[in-house]
């Protein structure tokens, strides 16, 4: 290799190294924006027992089943994911408060329409089985069974629709099937909820009204 080639090679190495450093710095900055709340003295103020949806009852999930965050500042929220508990209300709460369970949703809607919030919307709930979807969505569980059409009562549809309408309004989420989805639609999931008896047309119409 001649002197000119060596100079070119050194220059390419320096430019490449600088580009890599810039890329690494950008990644580091992006990661820091997601982890800012871990720094001493910068935790976002939180009111114990406060709910994001008026009328909801606060029953906290185990901290092991969600990740503290500052959504939508660190993660844009652009999805609502509809779940079904495959069990009763009490068993769902018990599971979400169990640190070994590894999952929890932001809300549970009961058959009678009562709403419980377990995780603040600003935090990342482990509900979808997909990290990206967890970070960008709010998860709503519905008491019942996917194979039992009677699980989905008028009161449940009405309350859940009001909840979802409030979430969509808060984050500017379009009311359509691309942005309001079932757990079954999350990439990589093995879940089937909310199942064939969930009336999507009825649900979206109620959200819009």
From TrEMBL:
Entry-linked SUPFAM superfamilies: N-acetylmuramoyl-L-alanine amidase-like (SSF55846)
SMART domains according to UniProt: Ami_2 (SM00644)
Catalytic activity: Hydrolyzes the link between N-acetylmuramoyl residues and L-amino acid residues in certain cell-wall glycopeptides
Pfam families given in the database record: Amidase_2
Domain N-acetylmuramoyl-L-alanine amidase: 66-195
Keyword Plastid: no
EC number: 3.5.1.28
Keywords: Cell wall biogenesis/degradation, Hydrolase
Protein name: N-acetylmuramoyl-L-alanine amidase
Protein species of origin: Streptomyces incarnatus
């Amino acid at each position: 290799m001649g002197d000119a080639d060596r100079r070119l090679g050194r220059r390419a190495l320096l430019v490449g190294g600088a580009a890599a450093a810039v890329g690494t710095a950008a990644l580091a900055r992006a990661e820091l924006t997601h982890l800012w709340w871990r720094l001493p003295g910068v935790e976002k103020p939180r009111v114990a027992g406060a709910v994001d949806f008026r009328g909801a009852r606060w029953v906290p999930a185990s901290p092991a089943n969600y990740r503290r965050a500052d959504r939508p500042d660190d993660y844009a929220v652009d999805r609502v994911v509809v779940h079904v508990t495959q069990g009763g209300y009490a068993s769902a709460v018990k599971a979400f408060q169990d640190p070994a369970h590894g999952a929890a949703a932001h809300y549970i809607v009961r058959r009678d329409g009562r709403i419980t919030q377990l995780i603040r919307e600003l935090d990342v709930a482990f509900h979808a089985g997909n990290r990206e979807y967890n970070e960008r969505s709010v998860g709503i569980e519905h008491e019942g069974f996917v194979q039992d059409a009677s699980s989905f009562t008028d009161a449940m549809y009405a309350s859940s629709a009001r909840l979802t309408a409030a979430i969509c309004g808060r984050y500017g989420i379009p009311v359509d099937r691309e942005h309001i989805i079932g757990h079954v639609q999350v990439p990589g999931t093995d879940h089937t909820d909310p199942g064939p008896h969930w009336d999507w047309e009825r649900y979206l119409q109620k959200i819009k009204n």
